[in-house]
Amino acid sequence: MALIRLTKEFNFEMAHYLSGYDGACKNIHGHSYRLFVTVIGEPISEEKHSKLGMVMDFGQLKELVHRRIISKLDHALLIHDTPESKELQPLLTKNFEKVEIVAYQPTCENLLIHFAAVIKAELPSNIRLHHLRLNETITSFAEWYDEDNK
Questions:
Q1: CATH number reported for the structural domain that contains residue 87 in this entry
Q2: Per UniProt, which keywords does this protein have (predicted)?
Q3: How many CA atoms, within 13 angstroms, populate the side-chain half-sphere of residue 121?
């Protein structure tokens, strides 16, 4: 058995509001995110299989991540659903198309936890999510590893 890791990179633009934050990022602001999704599995060995030699078709991974994450978050504003943000929510959702109200503070770290749950739920049973990396800026990123979360 040979396990192989595949990584696909995704880019999206997203703004967020960090409710209760005490630094410069307490204002609504955005980032150019880079998401790296790494899965692990064994290459298909069935001679007649159309994906012979592949762990997973990169297109299949791209479709999953685009459908469940990128299409929802690209050019969106994320706001944590808190009592503090309640009065902002109607104003923003009335005036902008892509406002996502989420149950967590939309930090780089919490985004990764959410992404991991979403991706893991849709991967084929023979493929595992190995790790995620999310760059919030060119020099700042967070990582999620499956082995750390067992």
A1: 3.30.479.10
A2: Lyase, Metal-binding, Zinc
A3: 9
The per-residue pLDDT string of the chain (150 residues; one tens digit each, 9 = 90 and over) reads: 799 999 999 999 999 999 889 998 899 999 999 999 999 999 999 999 999 999 999 999 999 999 999 999 999 999 999 998 988 899 999 999 999 999 999 999 999 999 999 999 999 999 999 999 999 999 999 999 999 998
Please report where in the chains the tokens 């410069």 appear, as a residue: 24
C-alpha span between 101 and 142 (Å, rounded): 22
The secondary element (H helix, E strand) that includes residue 129 is strand 127-135
Domain residue limits at 64 = 4-149
- Distance of alpha carbon 77 from alpha carbon 96, whole angstroms: 9
Residues 84, 144, 112: CA angle, nearest 5 degrees = 35
Q: 134 — phi, psi (to 5°)?
A: -125, 110
**Domains of the chain: total:** 1
Place of tokens 């979403």: 118
